[in-house]
Protein backbone atom coordinates (compact mmCIF):
# COMPACT_ATOMS: atom_id res chain seq x y z
CA UNK A 1 0.00 0.00 0.00
CA UNK A 2 1.26 3.49 -0.83
CA UNK A 3 2.37 5.71 2.05
CA UNK A 4 0.06 8.60 2.86
CA UNK A 5 -3.18 6.82 1.99
CA UNK A 6 -6.05 7.81 4.24
CA UNK A 7 -7.96 4.85 5.63
CA UNK A 8 -11.31 4.96 7.43
CA UNK A 9 -12.23 2.32 10.00
CA UNK A 10 -15.84 2.01 11.15
CA UNK A 11 -17.30 -0.32 13.79
CA UNK A 12 -21.04 -0.17 14.41
CA UNK A 13 -23.05 -1.84 17.16
CA UNK A 14 -26.25 -1.54 19.14
CA UNK A 15 -25.02 1.32 21.33
CA UNK A 16 -22.86 3.45 19.05
CA UNK A 17 -20.83 3.68 15.87
CA UNK A 18 -17.14 4.37 16.39
CA UNK A 19 -14.82 5.52 13.62
CA UNK A 20 -11.17 6.37 13.15
CA UNK A 21 -9.32 7.98 10.25
CA UNK A 22 -5.71 6.85 9.93
CA UNK A 23 -2.83 7.46 7.60
CA UNK A 24 -0.37 4.75 6.65
CA UNK A 25 3.18 5.72 7.50
CA UNK A 26 6.23 3.66 6.64
CA UNK A 27 5.80 1.42 9.67
CA UNK A 28 2.39 2.00 11.21
CA UNK A 29 -1.09 3.50 11.04
CA UNK A 30 -1.15 7.04 12.41
CA UNK A 31 -4.49 8.31 13.79
CA UNK A 32 -5.65 11.56 12.16
CA UNK A 33 -9.16 11.85 13.58
CA UNK A 34 -11.80 9.78 15.34
CA UNK A 35 -15.30 10.02 16.77
CA UNK A 36 -18.60 8.39 17.64
CA UNK A 37 -22.00 8.41 15.93
CA UNK A 38 -25.44 6.84 16.59
CA UNK A 39 -25.84 3.02 16.61
CA UNK A 40 -25.44 1.13 13.32
CA UNK A 41 -26.49 -2.48 13.85
CA UNK A 42 -26.95 -3.84 10.33
CA UNK A 43 -30.04 -5.83 11.31
CA UNK A 44 -31.70 -3.07 13.29
CA UNK A 45 -30.91 0.03 11.22
CA UNK A 46 -32.52 0.83 7.86
CA UNK A 47 -30.49 1.54 4.73
CA UNK A 48 -31.43 5.22 4.97
CA UNK A 49 -30.31 5.36 8.60
CA UNK A 50 -26.97 3.83 7.65
CA UNK A 51 -26.58 6.32 4.77
CA UNK A 52 -27.25 9.18 7.18
CA UNK A 53 -24.63 7.89 9.63
CA UNK A 54 -22.01 7.22 6.95
CA UNK A 55 -22.74 10.62 5.45
CA UNK A 56 -21.21 12.22 8.55
CA UNK A 57 -17.88 10.43 8.07
CA UNK A 58 -14.80 11.70 6.21
CA UNK A 59 -15.19 11.54 2.42
CA UNK A 60 -11.66 12.00 1.10
CA UNK A 61 -10.31 8.52 1.73
CA UNK A 62 -8.52 5.79 -0.24
CA UNK A 63 -9.84 2.81 1.70
CA UNK A 64 -12.69 2.06 4.10
CA UNK A 65 -13.24 -0.84 6.48
CA UNK A 66 -16.86 -0.95 7.66
CA UNK A 67 -17.78 -3.67 10.16
CA UNK A 68 -21.26 -3.75 11.67
CA UNK A 69 -23.00 -5.95 14.20
CA UNK A 70 -25.52 -8.16 12.39
CA UNK A 71 -23.62 -8.19 9.09
CA UNK A 72 -23.10 -11.93 9.02
CA UNK A 73 -23.99 -13.36 5.62
CA UNK A 74 -22.65 -12.98 2.11
CA UNK A 75 -25.82 -11.19 1.07
CA UNK A 76 -25.42 -8.80 4.03
CA UNK A 77 -21.90 -8.03 2.88
CA UNK A 78 -23.06 -7.47 -0.72
CA UNK A 79 -25.70 -5.03 0.53
CA UNK A 80 -23.35 -3.20 2.85
CA UNK A 81 -20.66 -2.97 0.15
CA UNK A 82 -23.12 -1.43 -2.32
CA UNK A 83 -24.17 1.11 0.30
CA UNK A 84 -20.55 1.98 1.12
CA UNK A 85 -19.70 2.42 -2.56
CA UNK A 86 -22.50 4.99 -2.77
CA UNK A 87 -20.83 7.00 -0.01
CA UNK A 88 -17.18 6.46 -1.02
CA UNK A 89 -17.26 5.73 -4.78
CA UNK A 90 -13.49 6.12 -5.24
CA UNK A 91 -12.43 4.09 -2.21
CA UNK A 92 -11.60 0.41 -1.90
CA UNK A 93 -14.01 -1.11 0.58
CA UNK A 94 -13.85 -4.09 2.91
CA UNK A 95 -16.91 -4.93 5.02
CA UNK A 96 -18.00 -7.54 7.53
CA UNK A 97 -19.20 -8.23 11.03
CA UNK A 98 -18.04 -6.52 14.21
CA UNK A 99 -16.59 -9.93 15.12
CA UNK A 100 -14.05 -9.42 12.32
CA UNK A 101 -12.98 -5.94 13.42
CA UNK A 102 -12.86 -7.02 17.07
CA UNK A 103 -10.61 -9.95 16.19
CA UNK A 104 -8.30 -7.67 14.19
CA UNK A 105 -8.17 -5.05 16.96
CA UNK A 106 -7.40 -7.56 19.68
CA UNK A 107 -5.14 -10.00 17.86
CA UNK A 108 -4.02 -8.38 14.60
CA UNK A 109 -3.11 -11.37 12.47
CA UNK A 110 -2.24 -13.58 15.45
CA UNK A 111 -4.01 -16.39 17.29
CA UNK A 112 -6.11 -16.20 20.41
CA UNK A 113 -9.64 -15.73 21.74
CA UNK A 114 -11.52 -12.43 21.84
CA UNK A 115 -14.31 -11.98 24.39
CA UNK A 116 -16.45 -9.00 23.45
CA UNK A 117 -18.96 -7.59 25.94
CA UNK A 118 -20.71 -4.39 24.91
CA UNK A 119 -24.44 -3.94 24.42
CA UNK A 120 -24.27 -7.49 23.03
CA UNK A 121 -21.67 -10.19 23.51
CA UNK A 122 -19.68 -12.76 21.57
CA UNK A 123 -16.63 -14.99 21.80
CA UNK A 124 -14.41 -15.53 18.74
CA UNK A 125 -11.26 -17.61 18.56
CA UNK A 126 -8.61 -18.14 15.90
CA UNK A 127 -5.85 -20.71 15.53
CA UNK A 128 -3.94 -20.58 12.27
CA UNK A 129 -6.74 -20.12 9.71
CA UNK A 130 -9.43 -21.82 11.77
CA UNK A 131 -12.13 -19.61 13.32
CA UNK A 132 -14.51 -20.74 16.09
CA UNK A 133 -17.42 -18.70 17.48
CA UNK A 134 -19.77 -18.83 20.44
CA UNK A 135 -22.58 -16.47 21.40
CA UNK A 136 -23.36 -13.38 19.37
CA UNK A 137 -26.87 -14.54 18.44
CA UNK A 138 -28.49 -11.14 19.00
CA UNK A 139 -30.48 -9.75 21.89
CA UNK A 140 -33.63 -11.84 21.39
CA UNK A 141 -32.06 -15.28 21.78
CA UNK A 142 -28.48 -14.61 22.81
CA UNK A 143 -26.08 -11.88 23.94
CA UNK A 144 -25.78 -13.48 27.39
CA UNK A 145 -23.25 -11.44 29.31
CA UNK A 146 -23.76 -8.27 27.28
CA UNK A 147 -25.20 -4.98 28.51
CA UNK A 148 -28.68 -5.72 27.17
CA UNK A 149 -28.82 -9.10 28.88
CA UNK A 150 -27.56 -7.81 32.24
CA UNK A 151 -29.97 -4.85 32.19
CA UNK A 152 -32.94 -7.03 31.24
CA UNK A 153 -32.17 -9.51 34.03
CA UNK A 154 -31.99 -6.61 36.49
CA UNK A 155 -35.36 -5.25 35.33
CA UNK A 156 -36.90 -8.69 35.78
CA UNK A 157 -35.41 -8.89 39.26
CA UNK A 158 -37.15 -5.63 40.20
CA UNK A 159 -40.55 -7.00 39.21
CA UNK A 160 -39.93 -10.46 40.67
CA UNK A 161 -39.05 -9.03 44.07
CA UNK A 162 -42.11 -6.82 43.99
CA UNK A 163 -44.39 -9.74 43.06
CA UNK A 164 -42.97 -12.10 45.68
CA UNK A 165 -42.33 -9.76 48.61
CA UNK A 166 -43.98 -6.46 47.68
CA UNK A 167 -40.56 -5.02 48.20
CA UNK A 168 -38.11 -3.12 46.08
CA UNK A 169 -34.51 -4.04 45.35
CA UNK A 170 -32.06 -1.34 46.28
CA UNK A 171 -31.58 0.06 42.81
CA UNK A 172 -35.26 0.35 41.78
CA UNK A 173 -35.23 4.06 42.47
CA UNK A 174 -32.00 4.44 40.49
CA UNK A 175 -33.55 2.72 37.47
CA UNK A 176 -36.70 4.85 37.68
CA UNK A 177 -34.61 8.02 38.08
CA UNK A 178 -32.37 7.08 35.13
CA UNK A 179 -35.45 6.68 32.94
CA UNK A 180 -37.36 9.65 34.40
CA UNK A 181 -40.20 7.32 35.41
CA UNK A 182 -42.35 7.39 38.51
CA UNK A 183 -43.51 3.84 39.22
CA UNK A 184 -43.34 0.21 38.11
CA UNK A 185 -46.37 0.50 35.82
CA UNK A 186 -44.57 3.19 33.86
CA UNK A 187 -41.45 1.02 33.81
CA UNK A 188 -43.38 -1.89 32.28
CA UNK A 189 -44.89 0.37 29.62
CA UNK A 190 -41.43 1.75 28.81
CA UNK A 191 -39.97 -1.76 28.51
CA UNK A 192 -42.68 -2.84 26.08
CA UNK A 193 -41.48 -0.33 23.49
CA UNK A 194 -37.80 0.05 24.39
CA UNK A 195 -35.25 -1.09 21.81
CA UNK A 196 -32.00 -2.94 22.44
CA UNK A 197 -29.95 0.22 22.82
CA UNK A 198 -32.31 1.80 25.35
CA UNK A 199 -32.25 -1.30 27.55
CA UNK A 200 -28.49 -1.77 27.24
CA UNK A 201 -27.90 1.84 28.29
CA UNK A 202 -29.04 0.86 31.81
CA UNK A 203 -25.93 -1.30 32.29
CA UNK A 204 -23.98 1.42 34.19
CA UNK A 205 -26.83 1.63 36.73
CA UNK A 206 -26.72 -2.14 37.15
CA UNK A 207 -22.97 -2.12 37.80
CA UNK A 208 -23.31 0.76 40.26
CA UNK A 209 -25.81 -1.29 42.25
CA UNK A 210 -23.52 -4.33 42.23
CA UNK A 211 -20.52 -2.24 43.29
CA UNK A 212 -22.69 -0.77 46.07
CA UNK A 213 -23.16 -4.21 47.60
CA UNK A 214 -26.51 -5.41 46.22
CA UNK A 215 -25.98 -9.18 46.39
CA UNK A 216 -28.81 -10.11 44.01
CA UNK A 217 -27.58 -7.73 41.32
CA UNK A 218 -24.08 -9.08 41.85
CA UNK A 219 -25.47 -12.56 41.13
CA UNK A 220 -26.60 -11.26 37.71
CA UNK A 221 -23.11 -9.92 37.02
CA UNK A 222 -21.54 -13.22 38.07
CA UNK A 223 -23.93 -15.21 35.86
CA UNK A 224 -23.04 -13.09 32.83
CA UNK A 225 -19.34 -13.62 33.50
CA UNK A 226 -19.89 -17.36 34.03
CA UNK A 227 -21.57 -17.82 30.64
CA UNK A 228 -18.88 -15.84 28.83
CA UNK A 229 -16.26 -18.03 30.51
CA UNK A 230 -18.19 -21.13 29.48
CA UNK A 231 -18.22 -19.91 25.86
CA UNK A 232 -14.50 -19.10 26.06
CA UNK A 233 -13.70 -22.59 27.30
CA UNK A 234 -15.84 -24.15 24.54
CA UNK A 235 -14.01 -22.16 21.85
CA UNK A 236 -10.63 -23.09 23.36
CA UNK A 237 -11.62 -26.77 23.37
CA UNK A 238 -12.70 -26.65 19.71
CA UNK A 239 -9.41 -24.97 18.80
CA UNK A 240 -7.49 -27.50 20.92
CA UNK A 241 -5.57 -24.91 22.95
CA UNK A 242 -4.87 -25.24 26.67
CA UNK A 243 -3.19 -21.89 27.30
CA UNK A 244 -4.85 -19.43 24.93
CA UNK A 245 -4.28 -15.72 24.74
CA UNK A 246 -7.64 -14.25 25.81
CA UNK A 247 -8.27 -10.60 25.00
CA UNK A 248 -11.19 -8.70 26.56
CA UNK A 249 -12.96 -6.17 24.35
CA UNK A 250 -16.03 -3.97 24.62
CA UNK A 251 -17.49 -1.34 26.91
CA UNK A 252 -18.36 -3.59 29.83
CA UNK A 253 -14.79 -4.83 30.19
CA UNK A 254 -13.22 -1.45 29.46
CA UNK A 255 -15.40 0.59 31.84
CA UNK A 256 -16.26 -1.80 34.65
CA UNK A 257 -13.39 -3.35 36.58
CA UNK A 258 -16.00 -5.35 38.51
CA UNK A 259 -16.94 -7.31 35.40
CA UNK A 260 -13.33 -7.64 34.32
CA UNK A 261 -12.36 -9.17 37.67
CA UNK A 262 -15.43 -11.44 37.76
CA UNK A 263 -14.58 -12.86 34.34
CA UNK A 264 -10.89 -13.36 35.10
CA UNK A 265 -11.65 -15.05 38.40
CA UNK A 266 -14.06 -17.54 36.85
CA UNK A 267 -11.91 -18.23 33.79
CA UNK A 268 -9.01 -19.13 36.07
CA UNK A 269 -10.99 -22.17 37.24
CA UNK A 270 -11.71 -23.54 33.77
CA UNK A 271 -8.60 -22.39 31.88
CA UNK A 272 -5.96 -21.85 34.55
CA UNK A 273 -3.15 -21.32 32.02
CA UNK A 274 -5.00 -18.75 29.90
CA UNK A 275 -3.23 -15.41 29.44
CA UNK A 276 -5.86 -12.70 29.88
CA UNK A 277 -5.42 -9.07 28.83
CA UNK A 278 -7.52 -6.10 27.85
CA UNK A 279 -7.39 -5.06 24.21
CA UNK A 280 -5.00 -2.20 23.62
CA UNK A 281 -6.77 -1.13 20.42
CA UNK A 282 -10.39 -0.26 19.77
CA UNK A 283 -12.50 -2.23 17.21
CA UNK A 284 -12.65 0.72 14.82
CA UNK A 285 -8.86 0.62 14.63
CA UNK A 286 -9.17 -3.09 13.80
CA UNK A 287 -11.55 -2.09 10.98
CA UNK A 288 -8.97 0.32 9.61
CA UNK A 289 -6.22 -2.32 9.92
CA UNK A 290 -8.31 -4.79 7.91
CA UNK A 291 -8.88 -2.18 5.22
CA UNK A 292 -5.14 -1.58 5.09
CA UNK A 293 -4.09 -5.24 5.03
CA UNK A 294 -6.84 -7.11 3.17
CA UNK A 295 -7.96 -7.20 -0.44
CA UNK A 296 -11.08 -5.28 -1.27
CA UNK A 297 -14.06 -7.56 -0.70
CA UNK A 298 -16.21 -5.70 -3.21
CA UNK A 299 -13.59 -6.15 -5.94
CA UNK A 300 -13.63 -9.91 -5.34
CA UNK A 301 -17.38 -10.42 -5.27
CA UNK A 302 -19.21 -7.71 -7.18
CA UNK A 303 -18.59 -9.05 -10.68
CA UNK A 304 -19.85 -12.60 -10.05
CA UNK A 305 -23.03 -11.15 -8.54
CA UNK A 306 -23.83 -9.18 -11.71
CA UNK A 307 -22.98 -12.21 -13.82
CA UNK A 308 -25.53 -14.24 -11.87
CA UNK A 309 -28.20 -11.63 -12.55
CA UNK A 310 -27.49 -11.69 -16.28
CA UNK A 311 -27.56 -15.49 -16.21
CA UNK A 312 -30.94 -15.48 -14.49
CA UNK A 313 -32.38 -13.06 -17.05
CA UNK A 314 -31.78 -15.68 -19.73
CA UNK A 315 -33.90 -18.28 -17.91
CA UNK A 316 -37.02 -19.55 -19.69
CA UNK A 317 -39.10 -18.64 -16.64
CA UNK A 318 -37.98 -14.99 -17.01
CA UNK A 319 -39.00 -14.63 -20.68
CA UNK A 320 -42.10 -12.75 -21.81
CA UNK A 321 -45.12 -14.77 -22.89
CA UNK A 322 -46.30 -13.52 -26.31
CA UNK A 323 -49.85 -14.74 -25.59
CA UNK A 324 -50.24 -12.36 -22.63
CA UNK A 325 -48.51 -9.20 -23.86
CA UNK A 326 -51.83 -7.28 -23.80
CA UNK A 327 -52.79 -8.58 -20.36
CA UNK A 328 -53.92 -5.25 -18.92
CA UNK A 329 -56.38 -4.74 -21.81
CA UNK A 330 -58.20 -8.07 -21.36
CA UNK A 331 -61.61 -8.26 -19.74
CA UNK A 332 -62.12 -10.67 -16.84
CA UNK A 333 -63.52 -13.53 -18.95
CA UNK A 334 -60.71 -13.38 -21.50
CA UNK A 335 -58.21 -13.27 -18.66
CA UNK A 336 -59.69 -16.44 -17.15
CA UNK A 337 -59.71 -18.21 -20.53
CA UNK A 338 -56.03 -17.36 -21.01
CA UNK A 339 -55.16 -18.80 -17.61
CA UNK A 340 -57.05 -22.01 -18.37
CA UNK A 341 -55.52 -22.35 -21.83
CA UNK A 342 -52.03 -21.92 -20.40
CA UNK A 343 -52.58 -24.86 -18.04
CA UNK A 344 -52.21 -27.27 -20.96
CA UNK A 345 -48.47 -26.49 -20.85
CA UNK A 346 -48.43 -27.83 -17.28
CA UNK A 347 -49.90 -31.17 -18.35
CA UNK A 348 -47.57 -31.37 -21.35
CA UNK A 349 -44.54 -30.63 -19.17
CA UNK A 350 -45.49 -33.32 -16.65
CA UNK A 351 -46.11 -35.95 -19.36
CA UNK A 352 -42.69 -35.23 -20.83
CA UNK A 353 -40.98 -36.19 -17.55
CA UNK A 354 -43.08 -39.25 -16.69
CA UNK A 355 -40.06 -41.54 -16.64
CA UNK A 356 -38.03 -39.12 -14.51
CA UNK A 357 -40.85 -38.76 -11.98
CA UNK A 358 -41.09 -42.54 -11.83
CA UNK A 359 -37.37 -42.73 -11.07
CA UNK A 360 -37.79 -40.12 -8.33
CA UNK A 361 -40.60 -42.16 -6.75
CA UNK A 362 -38.42 -45.28 -6.68
CA UNK A 363 -35.42 -43.32 -5.40
CA UNK A 364 -37.40 -41.95 -2.45
CA UNK A 365 -39.17 -45.26 -1.70
CA UNK A 366 -35.87 -47.16 -1.73
CA UNK A 367 -34.34 -44.62 0.64
CA UNK A 368 -37.26 -44.81 3.08
CA UNK A 369 -37.15 -48.62 3.09
CA UNK A 370 -33.59 -48.27 4.43
CA UNK A 371 -34.64 -45.77 7.10
CA UNK A 372 -33.92 -42.66 5.06
CA UNK A 373 -35.82 -39.41 4.86
CA UNK A 374 -36.95 -37.03 2.12
CA UNK A 375 -35.96 -33.37 2.27
CA UNK A 376 -37.39 -30.66 0.02
CA UNK A 377 -35.24 -27.52 -0.31
CA UNK A 378 -36.43 -24.31 -1.95
CA UNK A 379 -36.77 -20.55 -1.74
CA UNK A 380 -39.86 -18.39 -2.14
CA UNK A 381 -42.77 -20.17 -3.82
CA UNK A 382 -40.68 -23.29 -4.43
CA UNK A 383 -39.77 -23.49 -0.76
CA UNK A 384 -43.37 -22.97 0.36
CA UNK A 385 -44.57 -25.75 -1.93
CA UNK A 386 -41.96 -28.10 -0.48
CA UNK A 387 -42.95 -27.25 3.10
CA UNK A 388 -46.64 -27.66 2.18
CA UNK A 389 -46.15 -31.12 0.69
CA UNK A 390 -44.02 -32.23 3.63
CA UNK A 391 -46.58 -30.99 6.15
CA UNK A 392 -49.36 -33.04 4.53
CA UNK A 393 -47.58 -36.40 4.78
CA UNK A 394 -48.14 -37.09 8.54
CA UNK A 395 -51.95 -36.68 8.55
CA UNK A 396 -52.40 -38.39 5.18
CA UNK A 397 -50.20 -41.42 5.75
CA UNK A 398 -49.69 -41.58 9.51
CA UNK A 399 -45.98 -40.95 9.01
CA UNK A 400 -43.59 -39.23 11.40
CA UNK A 401 -43.04 -35.51 10.73
CA UNK A 402 -39.34 -36.40 10.46
CA UNK A 403 -39.89 -38.61 7.40
CA UNK A 404 -40.53 -35.79 4.92
CA UNK A 405 -39.18 -32.35 5.79
CA UNK A 406 -39.30 -28.99 4.04
CA UNK A 407 -36.42 -26.53 4.14
CA UNK A 408 -37.11 -22.97 3.00
CA UNK A 409 -34.60 -20.15 2.61
CA UNK A 410 -35.25 -17.56 5.30
CA UNK A 411 -36.86 -20.07 7.68
CA UNK A 412 -40.41 -20.13 8.99
CA UNK A 413 -41.00 -16.38 8.49
CA UNK A 414 -40.51 -16.88 4.73
CA UNK A 415 -43.67 -19.02 4.64
CA UNK A 416 -45.94 -15.99 4.94
CA UNK A 417 -43.79 -13.09 3.76
CA UNK A 418 -40.86 -12.46 1.47
CA UNK A 419 -37.42 -12.64 3.10
CA UNK A 420 -35.26 -10.65 0.68
CA UNK A 421 -31.86 -12.05 -0.10
CA UNK A 422 -32.47 -15.34 1.73
CA UNK A 423 -32.09 -17.36 -1.47
CA UNK A 424 -28.87 -15.71 -2.66
CA UNK A 425 -26.40 -17.54 -0.47
CA UNK A 426 -25.25 -21.07 -1.26
CA UNK A 427 -23.51 -21.36 2.12
CA UNK A 428 -26.84 -20.96 3.93
CA UNK A 429 -28.28 -23.85 1.93
CA UNK A 430 -25.32 -26.03 2.87
CA UNK A 431 -25.67 -24.99 6.51
CA UNK A 432 -29.38 -25.92 6.48
CA UNK A 433 -28.45 -29.42 5.30
CA UNK A 434 -25.92 -29.75 8.12
CA UNK A 435 -28.40 -28.59 10.73
CA UNK A 436 -31.01 -31.14 9.62
CA UNK A 437 -28.45 -33.90 10.01
CA UNK A 438 -28.78 -35.20 6.44
CA UNK A 439 -27.18 -38.63 6.05
CA UNK A 440 -26.09 -40.91 3.24
CA UNK A 441 -29.39 -42.81 3.28
CA UNK A 442 -31.50 -39.66 2.74
CA UNK A 443 -32.82 -38.02 -0.43
CA UNK A 444 -32.70 -34.25 -0.99
CA UNK A 445 -34.93 -32.70 -3.66
CA UNK A 446 -33.88 -29.18 -4.63
CA UNK A 447 -36.75 -27.09 -6.02
CA UNK A 448 -35.86 -24.03 -8.10
CA UNK A 449 -37.95 -22.78 -11.01
CA UNK A 450 -34.96 -21.08 -12.62
CA UNK A 451 -32.57 -23.93 -11.84
CA UNK A 452 -30.10 -21.36 -10.47
CA UNK A 453 -31.11 -20.50 -6.90
CA UNK A 454 -27.84 -20.44 -4.88
CA UNK A 455 -29.50 -21.57 -1.63
CA UNK A 456 -30.86 -24.68 -3.35
CA UNK A 457 -27.68 -25.50 -5.27
CA UNK A 458 -25.64 -25.04 -2.11
CA UNK A 459 -27.91 -27.47 -0.28
CA UNK A 460 -27.68 -30.04 -3.07
CA UNK A 461 -23.91 -29.74 -3.18
CA UNK A 462 -23.59 -30.33 0.55
CA UNK A 463 -26.07 -33.23 0.46
CA UNK A 464 -24.09 -34.91 -2.32
CA UNK A 465 -20.85 -34.49 -0.39
CA UNK A 466 -22.51 -36.33 2.49
CA UNK A 467 -23.45 -39.21 0.19
CA UNK A 468 -27.18 -38.48 0.07
CA UNK A 469 -29.14 -38.96 -3.16
CA UNK A 470 -30.01 -35.65 -4.85
CA UNK A 471 -32.76 -34.55 -7.23
CA UNK A 472 -33.01 -31.17 -8.98
CA UNK A 473 -36.54 -30.08 -9.92
CA UNK A 474 -36.66 -27.07 -12.27
CA UNK A 475 -38.90 -25.33 -14.79
CA UNK A 476 -35.98 -24.15 -16.89
CA UNK A 477 -34.52 -27.07 -18.88
CA UNK A 478 -31.76 -24.90 -20.33
CA UNK A 479 -30.40 -23.90 -16.92
CA UNK A 480 -27.57 -26.40 -16.89
CA UNK A 481 -26.94 -25.50 -13.24
CA UNK A 482 -26.30 -28.57 -11.16
CA UNK A 483 -27.87 -30.95 -13.68
CA UNK A 484 -24.71 -32.99 -14.03
CA UNK A 485 -24.01 -32.89 -10.31
CA UNK A 486 -27.21 -34.55 -9.06
CA UNK A 487 -28.48 -38.09 -9.25
CA UNK A 488 -31.60 -37.03 -11.12
CA UNK A 489 -32.68 -33.83 -12.87
CA UNK A 490 -36.38 -33.24 -13.60
CA UNK A 491 -37.11 -30.36 -15.97
CA UNK A 492 -40.70 -29.13 -16.21
CA UNK A 493 -40.79 -27.08 -19.43
CA UNK A 494 -43.95 -25.05 -18.75
CA UNK A 495 -42.69 -22.05 -20.76
CA UNK A 496 -42.91 -18.35 -19.91
CA UNK A 497 -45.48 -17.25 -17.36
CA UNK A 498 -48.57 -15.16 -18.14
CA UNK A 499 -47.15 -12.57 -15.75
CA UNK A 500 -43.47 -12.45 -16.66
CA UNK A 501 -41.28 -14.07 -14.03
CA UNK A 502 -44.15 -14.91 -11.66
CA UNK A 503 -43.24 -18.56 -11.13
CA UNK A 504 -46.04 -19.07 -8.61
CA UNK A 505 -48.28 -19.55 -11.69
CA UNK A 506 -47.60 -22.40 -14.19
CA UNK A 507 -44.26 -23.25 -12.66
CA UNK A 508 -45.83 -23.37 -9.22
CA UNK A 509 -48.71 -25.56 -10.41
CA UNK A 510 -46.40 -28.01 -12.17
CA UNK A 511 -44.08 -28.12 -9.17
CA UNK A 512 -46.97 -28.80 -6.77
CA UNK A 513 -48.18 -31.72 -8.90
CA UNK A 514 -44.66 -33.11 -9.27
CA UNK A 515 -44.14 -33.06 -5.50
CA UNK A 516 -47.54 -34.70 -4.99
CA UNK A 517 -46.49 -37.46 -7.37
CA UNK A 518 -43.11 -38.03 -5.72
CA UNK A 519 -44.32 -38.15 -2.11
CA UNK A 520 -47.63 -39.95 -2.74
CA UNK A 521 -45.97 -42.40 -5.13
CA UNK A 522 -43.32 -43.22 -2.53
CA UNK A 523 -45.96 -43.78 0.15
CA UNK A 524 -47.87 -46.12 -2.18
CA UNK A 525 -44.70 -48.07 -2.90
CA UNK A 526 -44.14 -48.40 0.86
CA UNK A 527 -47.58 -49.98 1.34
CA UNK A 528 -49.21 -46.99 2.99
CA UNK A 529 -52.47 -47.45 1.01
CA UNK A 530 -55.02 -50.20 0.38
CA UNK A 531 -56.32 -49.93 -3.16
CA UNK A 532 -56.82 -46.19 -3.28
CA UNK A 533 -57.65 -45.79 0.41
CA UNK A 534 -55.49 -44.04 3.05
CA UNK A 535 -55.38 -46.85 5.59
CA UNK A 536 -52.68 -45.18 7.69
CA UNK A 537 -54.25 -41.75 8.03
CA UNK A 538 -54.20 -39.98 11.40
CA UNK A 539 -57.77 -39.68 12.65
CA UNK A 540 -57.19 -36.35 14.39
CA UNK A 541 -60.50 -34.67 13.45
CA UNK A 542 -64.16 -35.54 13.17
CA UNK A 543 -63.85 -35.42 9.36
CA UNK A 544 -60.98 -37.91 9.34
CA UNK A 545 -62.69 -40.19 11.86
CA UNK A 546 -65.75 -40.22 9.62
CA UNK A 547 -63.55 -41.07 6.63
CA UNK A 548 -61.88 -43.91 8.58
CA UNK A 549 -65.28 -45.27 9.62
CA UNK A 550 -66.54 -45.30 6.05
CA UNK A 551 -63.36 -47.06 4.91
CA UNK A 552 -63.72 -49.79 7.52
CA UNK A 553 -67.41 -50.23 6.67
CA UNK A 554 -66.56 -50.50 2.96
CA UNK A 555 -63.63 -52.91 3.31
CA UNK A 556 -65.20 -55.16 5.98
CA UNK A 557 -68.70 -54.90 4.48
CA UNK A 558 -70.16 -53.85 7.84
CA UNK A 559 -72.53 -51.05 8.80
CA UNK A 560 -71.34 -47.59 9.81
CA UNK A 561 -72.04 -47.89 13.54
CA UNK A 562 -70.32 -51.26 13.80
CA UNK A 563 -67.28 -49.94 11.95
CA UNK A 564 -67.07 -46.92 14.27
CA UNK A 565 -67.32 -49.14 17.34
CA UNK A 566 -64.42 -51.27 16.09
CA UNK A 567 -62.27 -48.18 15.56
CA UNK A 568 -63.09 -46.82 19.02
CA UNK A 569 -62.15 -50.15 20.60
CA UNK A 570 -58.78 -50.06 18.81
CA UNK A 571 -57.92 -46.47 19.59
CA UNK A 572 -58.85 -45.37 16.07
CA UNK A 573 -56.03 -47.47 14.61
CA UNK A 574 -57.50 -48.18 11.18
CA UNK A 575 -54.83 -50.67 10.10
CA UNK A 576 -55.23 -52.65 13.34
CA UNK A 577 -58.98 -52.96 12.74
CA UNK A 578 -58.42 -54.23 9.20
CA UNK A 579 -55.81 -56.72 10.41
CA UNK A 580 -58.22 -58.14 12.98
CA UNK A 581 -60.84 -58.44 10.30
CA UNK A 582 -58.39 -60.34 8.11
CA UNK A 583 -58.38 -57.64 5.48
Strand content: 15-25%
| Assembly state of the chains shown | single chain
Overall geometry comes to: globular
What is the rounded distance between the termini? 82 Å
Strand order of the largest sheet: 3-2-1-4-5
Helix coverage percent: 40-55%
The fourth-level CATH homologous superfamily of the largest domain is Glucose-6-phosphate isomerase like protein, domain 1
Please give the largest β-sheet: 5 strands, mixed
Helical run tally: 23
The assigned structural class equals: alpha/beta
Rg over CA atoms, rounded to whole Å, is: 30 Å
Q: Look at the structure and give the CATH class of the largest domain.
A: Alpha Beta
Low-pLDDT stretches: 295-310
Count up the domains: 4
What is the CATH architecture descriptor of the largest domain? 3-Layer(aba) Sandwich
CATH third-level topology of the largest domain? Rossmann fold
What does this structure look like?
There is one protein chain. With 583 residues, the chain is of the alpha/beta class. 49% of the residues lie in helices and 15% in strands. It has 4 domains: 123 residues, ATPase, nucleotide binding domain (Nucleotidyltransferase, domain 5, 2-Layer Sandwich), CATH 3.30.420; 154 residues, ATPase, nucleotide binding domain (Nucleotidyltransferase, domain 5); 194 residues, 3-Layer(aba) Sandwich (Rossmann fold); 39 residues. About 3% of the residues have low confidence.
Amino acid sequence: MNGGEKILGVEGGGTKTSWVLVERTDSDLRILDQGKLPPANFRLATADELRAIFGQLPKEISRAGVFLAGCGTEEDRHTLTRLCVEIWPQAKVVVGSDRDSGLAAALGGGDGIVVNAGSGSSVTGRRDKRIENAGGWGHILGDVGGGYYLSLQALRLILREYDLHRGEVQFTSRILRALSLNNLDELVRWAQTADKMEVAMLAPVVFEAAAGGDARVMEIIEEGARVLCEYTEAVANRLHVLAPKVVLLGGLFQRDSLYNHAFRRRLKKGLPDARVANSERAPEFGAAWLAAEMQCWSEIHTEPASAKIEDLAAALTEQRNPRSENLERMNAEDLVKLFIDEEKFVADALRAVTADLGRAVELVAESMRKGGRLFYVGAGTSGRLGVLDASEIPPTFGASPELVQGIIAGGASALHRSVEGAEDEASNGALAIDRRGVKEVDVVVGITASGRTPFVLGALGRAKSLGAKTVLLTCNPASGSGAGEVNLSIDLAVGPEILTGSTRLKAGTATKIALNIISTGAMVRLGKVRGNLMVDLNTTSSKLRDRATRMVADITESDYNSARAQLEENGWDLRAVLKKAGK
